[in-house]
Design goal:
The protein is 53% helix and 5% strand. By secondary structure, it is mainly alpha-helical. It starts with 14 loop residues before the first helix and ends with a helix. It comes from Koribacter versatilis (strain Ellin345).
Length: 396
């Protein structure tokens, strides 16, 4: 794509943080560490497989030690497919707002395609760490799941749309078929449809099913495939029926999934809004309004700091910040105050969680700040959020 075809780039207060963050990512070839990657340590992997309670230590590792613990345990930096997808979508937004970034976007796209999950006929993706649970479930790195596959498919569609790349479009369609055919239908009744998180479970988690539903709506809209439109509507029915009277959603249906947090609520709202915008179906407009009202009234401090949970302030998490920016940008056409609030949150995040090297930290606690620069959880999400904010400020 010729750079001359793009509009002249605008200058915003967020340009410098975007460039610094991109430089940080590019220096590391978009690889890094994650809160959940301790089992990538060759010192821990064999031990944890035979010691289920080792997961308690491993999960605790995401809260202590940061990069230093990972260096001590020889956890290598790795490429995370979801991080690459978020970066790819960010590059596409930057191109749409006037920054020519095709060379970088193609590089990230190629990295992403190399990391597809093995042993599956359709394209799909998973996280780059090994997983062992106390209940005995074990999944090797890159085992496919719905959430990562959805974000990868969206990123490839973004790339296909802006650069007219038919291969990326075909791969996104393949990933969509994987979601529709390989995930279990954990609920499939007159109350709606809920898809599982992986092909190996029957979980009922609102956000992962809703995200798949929004992708189905996008594919149906772009390609006139009615079967995906029908799936999308039934998934949104399940999401609407699962909403509490106050407009909130718990993370999932199971007794152990009854918390309410900001970024998964943001996922639900963005998925439902995207479905409505793509299909013109306003059947869920009241659920959308209730959910957005709950979101705005429960998840933010007066200074713009996003709360992790609806009923307490700490920890303040970088993912809550990035998703809040994305959610408010998505609602900018419906709420005249949304864009200014998104800008306020971005300023607050840059002031309080940005590191001196241009990366972003992890969490703020009452008496300390964890500045670990996780690659997906922090950097990729913030690049995605700031790129979308820049695009929205420009009037896209």
């Amino acid at each position: 794509m010729n750079a001359a075809r793009l509009p002249a780039p605008s200058v915003t207060e967020f340009d410098s943080p975007i460039l610094a963050l991109h430089h940080w990512l590019r220096e590391r070839n978009y690889a890094g560490h994650e809160p959940y990657d301790l089992l990538n340590s060759p010192l821990l992997r064999k031990w944890a497989v035979h010691q289920p309670f080792a997961t308690l230590f491993i999960q605790g590792g995401k809260r202590i030690g940061g990069v230093h613990l990972r260096q001590w345990l020889h956890v290598p930096p790795s490429h995370n497919p979801k991080a690459l997808a978020l970066v790819l979508s960010a590059f596409c937004d930057l191109a749409r707002s006037g920054w020519f970034s095709r060379r970088h976007a193609e590089h990230v796209r190629n990295l992403l395609l190399e990391l597809r999950s093995p042993h599956e006929s359709d394209f799909c993706w998973g996280y780059d760490w090994h997983y062992v649970s106390l209940r005995g479930a074990r999944m090797p790195a890159f085992s496919p799941n719905s959430v990562v596959t959805v974000f990868c498919a969206h990123a490839l569609l973004d790339f296909a749309n802006i650069y007219q790349d038919e291969e990326s479009k075909a791969i996104a369609h393949s990933a969509t078929n994987w979601l529709a055919t390989r995930l279990n239908r954990s609920t499939d009744t007159d109350t709606g449809l809920c898809l599982s998180y992986t092909p190996n479970d029957h979980t009922r988690i609102f956000n992962n099913s809703a995200l798949a539903g929004a992708l189905f709506a996008r594919i149906a809209s772009d390609s006139r495939l009615p079967q995906y439109g029908s799936l999308a509507r039934r998934i949104m029915e399940y999401l609407g029926n699962g909403q509490a009277k106050d407009g909130s959603w718990t993370y999932g249906v199971a007794r152990s999934q009854q918390w309410i947090d900001t970024f998964h609520t943001g996922y639900n709202l963005c998925a439902l809004l995207e479905y409505q915008q793509l299909t013109g179906d306003t059947s869920f407009s009241q659920a959308l309004a209730r959910g957005y009202d709950f979101y705005c009234s429960h998840f933010f401090c007066p200074d713009g700091a996003p709360r992790y949970f609806h009923n307490r302030t700490y920890p303040i998490d970088i993912h809550s910040c990035s998703q809040a920016i994305l959610t408010l940008c998505a609602f900018a056409e419906l709420d005249p105050d949304a864009l200014s609030r998104a800008e306020q949150i971005a300023r607050w995040t840059i002031q309080h969680l940005r590191n001196s090297d241009g990366s972003f930290g992890y969490q703020i606690h009452p008496h300390r700040v964890d500045r670990t620069p996780y690659i997906r959880w922090s950097q990729a999400w913030m690049l995605r959020a700031l790129a979308r904010l820049r695009l929205t400020i420009g009037g896209e």
